[in-house]
Specification:
It is built from 7 helices and 8 strands; from the N terminus they run E-E-H-H-H-E-E-E-H-H-H-E-E-E-H. It is of the alpha+beta class. Strands 3, 4, 5, 6, 7 and 8 form a 6-stranded antiparallel β-sheet that branches. A two-stranded antiparallel sheet has the order 1-2. A hairpin with a 7-residue loop joins strand 1 and strand 2. The longest helix has 29 residues. The radius of gyration is 42 Å and the shape is extended. The chain starts with 22 loop residues before the first strand and ends in a 5-residue tail after the last helix. It holds the Pfam family DUF5819.
């Protein structure tokens, strides 16, 4: 055989005297020797837990911490059993309250049915006045009235005398707070007006309650008025609000020239009787 003939199966690289490929020894001394043995896996030649797909060393990734304690848990699962029970109970209570609220609102806005007739008082107590639904914004004929609510008070002075304040225009105060405000609050826009609407809908022309919500509507309007009077310091430094009285002026908004609607020529006035203020509200307002 010619000395230059080479076996095509012999790896290319540095060759020894007889043409055999030189493989560095495992010790790294540069001596030639046989190829290093394949790392041993499990008994029987099967790859170990850290071996790669080809039986070599793996990439070092593991399913959990190196101490063998398993994956780290987070969230509610990381809590102890008593805290897990407490969290589950809290979530259950929130879910029940949300479902009950949605059910009450649905029964309130839905057409009259057997359930709403049988439990009308409970539904009303839940909805009024905080969750009352008003669809006038989306109605074909929205509210077209200017409502001006005014109030005055009887003040018991420090020397035992009684004085009556002038009329405070509460609606004008709300109007000044809204004017020029790009993001007015809901209380400035609707609280006083809606309280008056609720009172008018639950009382007759003689100011007698009609239905289940008459007393609640009266208390709601009175508390708003007392709070506004305290903000205005109507009682002074040493005075006490004994009684309040409310009146309202309702005027139709003039229709545009192209409209065929007609507005009433004269505004409507309504004067309510004097209301005695409870002791808890008479000095410091709402608590």
């Amino acid at each position: 055989m010619d000395a230059h003939d080479e076996d095509s199966n012999v790896p290319h690289g540095r060759r020894g005297p007889r043409g055999a490929a030189e493989v560095p020894s495992p010790g790294g001394t540069g001596e030639t020797g046989a190829a290093p043995a394949r790392p041993e896996g499990r008994p029987g030649g099967s790859p170990g837990p850290d071996d790669g797909p080809d039986g070599g060393p793996g990439d070092g990734l593991d399913d959990g911490p190196g101490d063998g304690s398993g994956p780290v848990r987070g969230g509610v699962a990381a809590l102890s059993v008593p805290y897990q029970i407490g969290a589950a109970l809290a979530l259950a209570v929130v879910a029940v309250v949300v479902c009950a609220h949605l059910g009450m609102v649905f029964l309130h806005v839905a057409p009259s049915n057997t359930v709403s007739k049988q439990h009308g008082k409970a539904i009303g107590d839940w909805i009024y006045p905080e969750f009352e639904q008003n669809w006038k914004l989306f109605a074909p004929n929205p509210l077209q009235q200017n409502i001006a609510v005014q109030a005055r008070a009887e003040i018991r002075t420090a020397d035992g005398g009684i004085r009556t304040t002038g009329w405070y225009d509460l609606s004008a105060q709300d109007g000044r707070a809204i004017d020029g405000n790009p993001l007015p609050s809901h209380t400035q826009q609707n609280m006083l007006r809606r309280a008056w609407d609720l009172y008018g809908a639950t009382h007759d022309s003689d100011n007698r309650p009609v239905g289940l919500h008459g007393t609640l509507a009266e208390q709601y309007l009175r508390r708003i008025v007392v709070l506004r009077l305290h903000r205005a310091r109507a009682a002074g430094a040493d005075g006490v609000v004994e009684r309040v009285q409310v009146r309202c002026r309702i005027a139709d908004v003039p229709p545009p020239a192209w409209s065929k609607e007609k507005a009433r020529g004269r505004p409507e006035h309504r004067l309510l009787p004097w209301w005695t203020v409870p002791a808890g509200e008479s000095r410091d307002g709402l608590r």
